[in-house]
Every structure is written in structure tokens, then in C-alpha cells.
Amino acid sequence: MKKKLVIIKNRSDIGAGTRGADMGIDAMEIAAINAGNDFFNRTLFTDVKTHNESIYNMVRNSFAKRINFVVQQCQRVSKTVKATLENNAFPLVLSGDHSSALGTISGVKAAIPTARLGIVWIDAHADLHTPFTSPSGNIHGMPLAAALQEDNLNMKSNTPDNETLHAWDDLKNIGTNSPKFLPQDLVYFGVRDTEPAEVSLMASCNIKNYSVPEVRFRGIQTCIAEAVDKLAACDVIYLTFDLDSLDCDFVSRGTGTPVPLGFTPDEAKTLITGFLSTDKVVCTEFTEINPLLDNKGNFMAETAFDILHHCFG
């Protein structure tokens, strides 16, 4: 890591369907303390103000829950990421739920507007829903569609009201008023829990997903090298690591939407360090640790910190 590392702590979970991911960062810090590791004490950090109190408000936008507050939260994250990059530092974003990735991506693009941005998305979910397609209305399932400014109207199943549509437009235009990246510059690792609307969009945009079985059959280094080659035309890369990409039966269910048959922690370490070694990665995000759902004490946060420290310590 050539640039100084700055941790951006975004304790927001209003984009998720289950409360508790706002405690994920603190759970990781507790894991570090219990391990006798001073990583968080010796690393620069900044806190992002949250709108977590909005969970007490009645949900009015059922196809995009709390979207007005999510817009404001993503704007805050975007400004913080942009300022960190402009200060010639490396932002390591620690977030509650994955809706904030839209803010992070927007901040990267706002800081380097002329750069072609590649996305490495390590996750059990495609997060390509929109208010027109989402079966849950939870915005942590929409950040990539927002970043692509994609409504996916071909698979429309919902009719959002005007207030929701106005906020959705605001969300899509954070940082820049154009798509943040090209669909062909998005690479998935570990996606295995999707709905038809997302599958349709992945197919029409020819988005590559390296499934867990494929990674193991072909070899993790082969898949990393192929993905790096696929993103060769990109100037910079944003990498996000959702903890539900891990195998919930092997690790823990301490994440909002656990899915079995995922990666092992060692595979996650290899994936992240493999892309970091290219020197194109300018920002990384860790997200969706929910200690309230952990069936093994604080094991998901302990695992997350072990991976984080391996990659950045």
C-alpha cells in the first residue's frame, strides 16, 4: 500500500431489511481488541454521520424503503470518499449495509471523473434491483443499478410513486449525473442468490459472475487473472467485500442475508489481495456484518477483522 490508509466508518444500516449492521464496525473493533491488535488505534479514520434514527419513522416508500434518507447517507459517504482520494489517501470504507456502496462508487467517480472505473463485487447477491423490480424494497439490493443509472423497466413489477421516483433519480445522480461505470467493467465473485430481474439484467449486459464452484474448479488464481485481464482497460478499480459472500454454515450467520455454499475466509483473503496487488484498486469496502444475528458469538466480526488485517494490516 503506497498511499496512507484512511478508514471511513459508516455505521448506517437503513438500507437493510434487518437492523443490527450499524454495530458491525464496533464488533470488528472489539474483535481487534480481543486479539490484542491495535490496528484501529494506529490507523487514521473518519466517522460519517448517520440517519439510523429514521428506522423509527413510518415507511412511506414501500418499493424503496427510507430512500430519502439513503440518498442523504450516500451523499455523505460520496463526499467523504472524494475528499479522502483528493487528499492522496486510500479510503477503506467500513459500512453497515451495502446501500452505501453507491455513495462510495459515486465518491470515487467524483474524485477521478475522467478515469474508467472497474468494479469487483464479492457478494452473494447481485444488488441490481431497482424500485421497479425489488421484491423487498430494501435499498441495499439496489446500489449497482443506481450506479449504472439502470431502471430495468423490461422487468418492471412495481409502480413506485412520484416521491420515490424523484429520490431514485437523486440517488442515481450522486457524485456525477452520468453512469459511474460501464456494465462490462463489473465483475462478480460469489453471487448465488438472485431474482429473475437481476438475472435478466446480468444476461443482457453480459456481466461476468465467477461462482464459487467455478472459482474452485478452475482455480482461484486463474479466475483472478482472467478478471484482471477483463478489467485491463479500466484505469482504477473499486473492490467491495460483502461478508455474506462467505459460507454462512462454515463461518457464521452474522450478516443480514446469509447464504450457504460461499467462500471460505482464506479464499476471500486470496481474492482481495489478488486484486490489491494490481495497484489499480483505489478504494475498498467491507460491509454487512450484523453481530445481532451471529450464531457463534462475535465470530463473523472476528473473521472480517482477520481478513481485513491480512489485507491491510
- Number of separate strands: 8
Question: Quaternary arrangement of the chains shown?
Answer: single chain
What name does CATH use for the topology? Arginase, Chain A
Measured between the Cα atoms of the first and last residue, the distance is: 10 Å
The name of the CATH superfamily reads: Ureohydrolase domain
* SSE string: EHEHEHEHHEHEHHEHEH
- Name the structural class: alpha/beta
Main beta-sheet strand count, sense and barrel state: 8 strands, parallel
Low-confidence stretches: none
**So what's the overall shape?**
globular
What does this structure look like?
- There is one protein chain.
- With 313 residues, the protein is α/β, with parallel strands linked by helices.
- It is built from ten helices and eight strands.
- It has helices spanning 24-34, 67-86, 101-111, 143-148, 162-172, 196-204, 212-218, 220-230, 265-276, 299-312, and strands spanning 4-10, 44-47, 89-95, 117-122, 186-189, 208-210, 236-242, 281-287.
- α6 links the parallel β5 (186-189) and β6 (208-210).
- α1 packs across α10 (299-312), α2 runs parallel beside α5 and α7 (212-218) packs across α8.
- The mean pLDDT is 97.
Explain the layout of strands and helices:
Layout: E1 4-10, H1 24-34, E2 44-47, H2 67-86, E3 89-95, H3 101-111, E4 117-122, H4 143-148, H5 162-172, E5 186-189, H6 196-204, E6 208-210, H7 212-218, H8 220-230, E7 236-242, H9 265-276, E8 281-287, H10 299-312
Parallel strand pairs: 1-2, 1-3, 3-8, 4-5, 4-7, 5-6, 7-8
Please provide a brief summary of the model.
This protein is an alpha/beta fold and 313 residues long.
